[in-house]
Design brief:
The protein is mostly helical. The protein contains 14 helices and 3 strands. Helices cover 61% and strands 3% of the residues. Helix 2 packs antiparallel against helix 3, helix 4 runs antiparallel to helix 5 and helix 6 runs antiparallel to helix 7. The chain starts with a helix and ends with a helix.
Length: 376
């Protein structure tokens, strides 16, 4: 009798729990789930750039579901009413996720690589919400999505290409320095005021070239991301003998790391630091940021991108589609070329917590792959 009473109590409790879960699921809207997911990822240490990317992708999915299922009867058929922007979470099933992936291709013309990334964000979203809020995860019933995968392109510089690119910047520095000296002599001999302006223009061009060389060297010889490079402060670099290093205090995911400084990077930074004060405004006083623009403010990522594309166009390197992140990939590839199998050390240097993230650098060594095939 006691056992039967206990069994009935457990059954009743399970039933109540099921009702609570069903009620929570019925009341949950997609917008609420997105906010919960973003808060969870923020608490987990995700950076603002990553959170913004999650939000953009999830809100696109939210609007698509709302447009498809959010018109309750004739409520939204009037032209005076804005289209729905949200819908209940229960409307989402495996069919909706699959249809959305097709929509991204057919209606938005999205490439397979982008659709794959969107689906990965949706999977993470549903897994987190399902686990924490005890609601269904529609991706568990999703058939495997296959995306066309193109043959990988070389995403790093060869040693020769890097030498050509950086040498072209160095040559410009030297040229501007020589011209600056010549113009200064002319001004001293009584040339016009216009000559003085020309000296300042050439001085600025020389300083910016030195800055570009140093910034690109930081990405190439220390493996920093472009946002980490622009965020560097003067106190983050150490040039003392035996202690040459770069501290990445504001890395992706708020992870801090220290990267030893190579001799080539040290020389480039020293050359820039000799002329960095030319970019400072006397009225503004000293600034903590390492890399500055011509207004004496912290250089932006877009500025460095534009400058890199300009230098690449002016150089004769084969890889004309070079992107800033390719400089970081160059560091990873070169490191494994020089230290085969040292994947864990590379992961620490590049700020990766997942070893699989750095395995691509072992696979991207085109020259080693070609040499391996020739040995067969």
């Amino acid at each position: 009798m006691a056992d039967q009473t206990a069994h009935e109590a457990v059954t009743e409790a399970i039933g109540q729990r099921s009702v609570e879960v069903d009620s929570r699921r019925d009341r949950l809207w997609i917008g609420d789930a997105i906010r919960f997911f973003l808060d969870a990822k923020r608490a987990g240490g995700r950076g603002q750039r990553t959170l913004d990317d999650y939000r953009k992708k999830l809100e696109l999915f939210q609007r698509w579901v709302a447009a498809r299922y959010g018109s309750y009867g004739n409520e939204y058929e009037s032209e005076d009413v804005d289209p729905p922007v949200d819908a209940p979470y229960v409307y989402i099933g495996a069919n909706e996720v699959e249809s959305y992936v097709v929509y991204l291709k057919d209606e938005r013309g999205m490439a397979d690589s982008s659709r794959k990334n969107h689906l990965a964000v949706l999977r993470s979203f549903f897994q987190t919400v399902s686990r924490r809020l005890e609601v269904p995860d529609p991706t568990t019933r999703l058939d495997e999505a296959r995306f066309h995968q193109k043959a990988p392109k070389r995403s790093y510089l060869t040693k020769r290409e890097a030498e050509i690119l950086l040498s072209s910047i160095e040559n410009q520095e030297t040229k501007q320095e020589i011209n600056e000296t010549s113009e200064t002599e002319d001004v001293e001999q009584g040339s016009s005021v216009r000559g003085g302006r020309e000296v300042r223009r050439r001085e600025l061009a020389y300083t910016l070239a030195a800055r570009d060389h140093a910034a690109f060297s930081v990405m190439m010889y220390a493996g920093l991301r472009i946002e980490e490079t622009t965020a560097l402060a003067m106190e983050d670099i150490s040039l003392a003998r035996g202690e040459e290093e770069i501290k990445v205090a504001r890395g992706k995911g708020n992870k801090e790391r220290v990267v030893p400084m190579s001799p080539k990077l040290k020389r480039s930074l020293r050359r820039y630091l000799k002329v960095r004060n030319r970019l400072l405004s006397p009225a503004a006083g000293p600034l903590p940021h390492l890399f500055l623009n011509e207004q004496g403010e912290r250089v932006t990522e877009n500025t460095l991108r534009r400058r890199l594309y300009k230098w690449v166009r002016q150089s004769s390197i084969k890889k004309q589609d070079l992107k800033p992140h390719d400089l970081r990939r160059t560091f990873g590839t070169w490191f494994l070329q020089a230290n085969p199998g040292h994947v864990r050390e590379l992961a620490e240097l590049m700020g990766h917590s997942d070893l699989s993230q750095v395995m691509k650098y072992a696979l991207s060594d085109e020259e080693r792959a070609r040499a391996g095939v020739l040995r067969l």
